[in-house]
Amino acid sequence: MSAVGRPRWPTWVVLGAGFAFLYLPVLLLMLWSFNSSRLATVWAGFSFKWYGELLRDDSILDAAWVSLRIAFWTATASVVLGTLAALAMTRLRRFPGRTLFGGLITAPLVMPDVIIGLSMLLMFVSLGEVLQVQPKGMASIWIAHTTFSLAFVTVVVSSRMAELDRSLEEAAMDLGANRVKVFFLITLPIIAPALVSGWLLAFTLSLDDVVIASFVSGPSSTTLPMKVFSSVRLGLSPKINALATLMIVAVSVCAFLGWWLMSRSERRRRRELQMARQA
Asked: What are 46's strand-pairing partners?
């Protein structure tokens, strides 16, 4: 590497300071999850005590199971609806109200969570009075999370579809394939990495939300972030450190697997395209 392109020591210092600012609190949290003392300022020895306490706490495990189910269905619904919205925005360029449609779909990106949660609460209460059903529960959280996650998925998928080489779709249609067949055989495999990214993004947003869920959740649908938030207000327990450590490890493993699968798929796609062009 030339001297011009080689990073100098101030660059490494600034980079190290930035990483320390971001990840040092996380590393300290993981370290204190193995502390046998309840006090965060006193190190009393290495122990898995709080992990055992966590696994015996049924309220936290139930909240985690509720959050995982809501996050899974939120991510799945957001990918389906977000893909349809991205198709409309990138393929149907002349339909009336396209600009308004795009603005309404992406509006939750800039709308405060409190406003979304309050508006969802008013809507569910009104629907509950009309339909004579319990307005708040897992279904209401799922609908609310899908509403704001849909905007993020639409942006990710539409960006990928805008970069798609339309000549591949046109060539398939020239060979006799209809639009549905072109979508499933040509478009869908190419945008698959964006769909996976959108699914993981929506899953993370749903799993992390506490503001909107606090408006639309019912007595039997407490999510894990709400449980952790209420526990912290009553006094920080080392069990929360253990729970956070497990979540960090799980998310890191999933992110690495997702990156590895998408990288392998992208390399295979590029290799197949290169072979097709040489044929």
From this structure: 35
Tokens of residue 49, six digits: 């005590």
Contact assessment for residue 76 and residue 142, using Cβ atoms and an 8 Å cutoff: no
Give 136-153 pLDDT, tens digit per residue.
788 889 999 999 899 999
Q: Is the dihedral of CA 20, 25, 31, 35 positive or negative?
A: positive
What burial letters (b/e) apply to 66-80, b meaning 16+ CB within 10 Å?
bbeebbbbbbebbbe
Residue 98: its pLDDT value, please?
80
pLDDT digits (tens, 9 = 90+) for 20-63: 998 898 888 888 888 888 776 778 888 888 898 888 888 888 88
- Beta carbons within 10 angstroms of residue 228's beta carbon: 20
| Average pLDDT of span 115-139 | 85
How far, in Å, CA of 1 to CA of 176, rounded?
A: 51
**pTM score:** 0.79
Decide: 41 and 55 in contact? Cβ < 8 Å.
no
CA-to-CA distance for 196 and 256, rounded, in angstroms? 13
In degrees, rounded to 5, the angle at the alpha carbon of residue 227 between the alpha carbons of residues 226 and 231 is: 115
CB atoms within 10 A of CB 148: 23
Structure tokens at 226: 């709400």
